[in-house]
Amino acid sequence: QVQLVESGGGLVQAGESLRLSCATSERTVNTYAMGWFHQAPGKEREFVAAISRYFSRTYYADSVKGRFTISRDTTKNTLFLQMNSLKPEDTAVYFCAAKTRGPFVSTAYYITANDYDTWGQGTQVTISS
After folding, report:
1. For residues 89 and 12, what is the distance between their CA atoms, to the nearest angstrom?
2. What is the rounded distance in angstroms from the CA atom of residue 97 to the CA atom of residue 128?
3. Are the beta carbons of 50 and 39 closer than 8 angstroms?
4. What pLDDT is recorded for position 105?
5. Of 33, 46, 84, 126, which is most buried, counting CB atoms within 10 Å of its CB?
6. C-alpha closest to that of 12 among 86, 94, 65, 96
7. Where are the beta strands (DSSP E) in the chain?
8. What confidence tens digit (pLDDT) does each residue in 70-115 have?
9. Residues 70, 56: Cα–Cα separation, whole Å
10. In this model, does residue 27 exceed pLDDT 90?
11. 10 Å Cβ neighbour count for 83?
């Protein structure tokens, strides 16, 4: 069974950077499409970034485009989210997710939470102004 474990969250000031990691079991990062979502208190889980199963096609929410980068290291079975120029509105719990159930489209990325079937426990990111 695929397992996802996020880390790297914390408290930083606006304008600083954080890199989130999502450690996976098996060969998840090079087998499945994956994504990052965040959820602020009282709000629904929102899409942040996604990467396709093959060819590493990526897609970002407009709010993070140009500031965040999703990537993966297949040798370490880890998905990353590099977050630069952080803003107070980025404050949320960040989750990584994997689409482990088909149908599969090799070059597709997925941007809705319902597309994913496996989730990590989340890591808190807090940005102070």
Report:
1. 13
2. 26
3. no
4. 83
5. 33
6. 86
7. 4-7, 10-13, 18-24, 33-39, 46-51, 58-60, 68-73, 78-83, 92-99, 118-119, 123-128
8. 999 988 999 999 999 999 999 999 999 999 998 888 888 999 999 9
9. 9
10. no
11. 26
